[in-house]
Structure formats: structure tokens, C-alpha cells
UniProtKB/TrEMBL annotation:
Keywords tagged on the record: Hydrolase, Protease
GO biological process, one term: proteolysis
Domain (PDZ): residue spans on this chain: 209-300
Protein's name according to its UniProt entry: PDZ domain-containing protein
A Pfam family per the record: Trypsin_2
Organism from which the protein derives: Thermogemmatispora tikiterensis
Keyword Cytoplasm: no
Length: 316
């Protein structure tokens, strides 16, 4: 056995007992399968929000085959994260969350989960890229900042499992595979994971209070609607793209900077805003307290204002 094989074997042995299968059933009678990672000896398990979103009953299958009932401890739809809790057995194994800020492209990783219901499956790959922004279509409004891209196979059922480095640390939570737009099927070798530092930031709040009180995400303090060519023609707007400000939060960041309802956001710090999705993608990579130059159309006049960004409220 080579040194690399020994490292992989040791990492698997360390983490695999902390990876569980999550079976859910809904009020309509539908069922689903996902994965989860035990992160606290009190029985707290992190998974994806989309795994448990509609669950009426949740069953956790431990690595040794034990079946346990679980309850949702808290959720964060914006990050596609959730925490469920079991009554922990005495021999519970807890995974170690690593430091995702130290990851390198090309680094070897393992994905452990339950793809297609095949329990405790391990796949192998590398970190293909870092710092991706991933919008999860069909999974609420989740926009994942600084996502980890990997070529380790990520299939249905892997969601909520563990992306692991060769030291046996969980450095990400697999959440989604890229979709090939031509065939509307998962693309081979392009999967994404939520970085462990973001996971730690969110789950610590959920475990402590049952909710996310600080999102750490930037906000403008506006409600917006995507500008389409149809809307532009209907309302005689000066551009056929961007985000139309529908309302401004009183005394919020945008209001303090002088933005108003009716303004159309077309760029932030020089990055073009084509619609609400690109606006979200830009903001998710900024932090509360940062300043941003927001370019808008007000009637036919284009102007740029400096906004000190606020913090997005949980549930917004």
C-alpha cells in the first residue's frame, strides 16, 4: 500500500463513523434520502436544508446501521444548511471541521455520503477551484459564496455529507452538482460544497439559539424586481436589464446613500447587474460594513453613489 493510499484509508476511518444517512418522509407521502455529518457529541448533525425542507419525519441511519429519530434543530435556507438532532448513543463519533481558508487547488479530497441510497460510499478527487459563487436553482434562494468545486463525484444522496481532506478533516458539505444546460442533467466531475468555515459560522448559531441571528452577508436594504425587456417596454424604462428598486428600507444602507424606489441598479463596483440573481451573486461576495459603488438609472440619468453595506437579516 502506498503512502497516499494509507492517508486516504486513515482519513476514511476517522470520518466515516460520523457520516450518516438521512431518510425523510413528507406529509404528501413522498420520501427522500440525503446525508449528514455529526458535528457535536450532543447529537447535532449538519446537513443541507433542501434535504429536510419538507420533512414531516426524519430518520437517521448511523454508520453501524442503527436507526434513530431526529428533529430539526434549526435551518438556514440562504446557505442551504440545516441542523438536526438525535438522542446520541454513547459511542457517538464526531467529525472535525477543518479550516477551509487554507485549501489549495489540486489538493486531494474524499466525498463520503449516500449517493442514490448506497450507504457509506467514498469517492475521490481533487479541489478543482475555490471561491465559486453557486446559485442553487430549485432549492429556495440559496446562494453559496466561496463554494469549493471538486471533481469527486457528487450524486443525489451525497447532499449534506462530508468533503474531507487527507488529514480526515471535513472541509466542506457537498450540496449540488452542476447541471448541463443542454441536457438538463448533472454534469460529470463538477460538484460543489459549502466551505467548512461558513458551515461552522452558521451551525454554531443554530446549536446555541435554534436560529441564525447573524448572517454575515451584505445587504443594500432594498426590495427589487428584475428588469426584463418586456417590463422595460411596458414601463418605458431607460434600460432592459438590471434590478428595479421597488422599495427602500427606512434608514437602511440604500436610503442613507440617497437611493430611492424607481432607481434601476445596473452595476456594483463596475460589475454589471443584469437581474436580481446577478445582484445577489455580487452581494454574497461582499461583507457588512464594506462600501460599494452602486450605479443606477434614475429616469434617463445615470449616477453612481457610494453605499456602506448593512447586514442581511436572517430570513430575508
Amino acid at each position: 500500500m502506498t503512502t497516499d493510499e494509507q492517508a486516504r484509508e486513515a482519513a476514511i476511518a476517522k470520518v466515516q463513523p460520523a457520516v450518516v444517512q438521512i431518510n425523510v418522509s413528507t406529509a404528501s407521502g413522498a420520501s427522500g434520502i440525503g446525508s449528514g455529518v455529526i458535528i457535536d457529541k450532543r447529537g447535532y448533525i449538519v446537513t443541507n436544508y433542501h434535504v429536510v425542507e419538507s420533512a414531516q419525519q426524519i430518520e437517521v441511519v448511523m454508520a453501524d446501521g442503527t436507526h434513530l429519530t431526529a428533529q430539526v434543530a434549526g435551518t438556514d435556507p440562504a446557505d442551504d444548511l440545516a441542523v438536526v438532532k438525535i438522542n446520541p448513543p454513547s459511542n457517538i463519533t464526531v467529525a472535525t471541521l477543518g479550516d477551509s481558508s487554507k485549501l489549495q487547488v489540486g489538493q486531494e479530497v474524499l466525498a463520503i455520503g449516500n449517493p442514490l441510497g448506497e450507504t457509506q460510499t467514498v469517492t475521490h478527487g481533487i479541489i478543482s477551484a475555490l471561491g465559486r459563487t453557486v446559485s442553487e436553482e430549485g432549492q429556495g434562494t440559496a446562494v453559496i459564496a466561496n463554494a469549493i468545486q471538486t471533481d469527486a463525484p457528487i450524486n443525489p444522496g451525497n447532499s449534506g455529507g462530508a468533503l474531507v481532506d487527507l488529514s480526515g478533516n471535513v472541509i466542506g458539505i457537498p450540496t449540488v452538482a452542476a447541471i448541463d444546460p443542454e441536457f438538463n442533467t448533472p454534469a460529470n466531475g463538477v460538484g460543489f460544497a459549502i466551505p467548512s468555515n461558513r458551515v461552522r459560522f452558521i451551525v454554531q448559531q443554530i446549536i446555541a439559539t435554534g436560529q441564525v441571528t447573524h448572517t454575515g452577508r451584505a445587504a443594500l436594504g432594498v426590495r427589487v424586481a428584475s428588469v426584463t425587456p418586456q417590463l422595460a417596454a411596458q414601463d418605458n424604462l431607460p434600460v432592459d436589464y438590471g434590478s428595479l428598486i421597488v422599495s427602500v428600507t427606512a434608514n437602511g444602507p440604500a436610503a442613507r446613500a440617497g437611493l430611492r424606489a424607481g432607481d434601476i441598479i445596473v452595476a456594483i463596483d463596475g460589475q454589471k447587474v443584469t437581474d436580481n440573481q446577478t445582484l445577489s451573486d455580487i452581494l454574497v461576495n461582499k461583507s457588512p460594513g464594506q462600501t460599494a459603488k452602486v450605479t443606477v438609472y434614475r429616469g434617463t440619468q445615470q449616477l453612481t453613489v457610494t453605499v456602506t453595506l448593512g447586514e442581511l437579516q436572517a430570513g430575508s
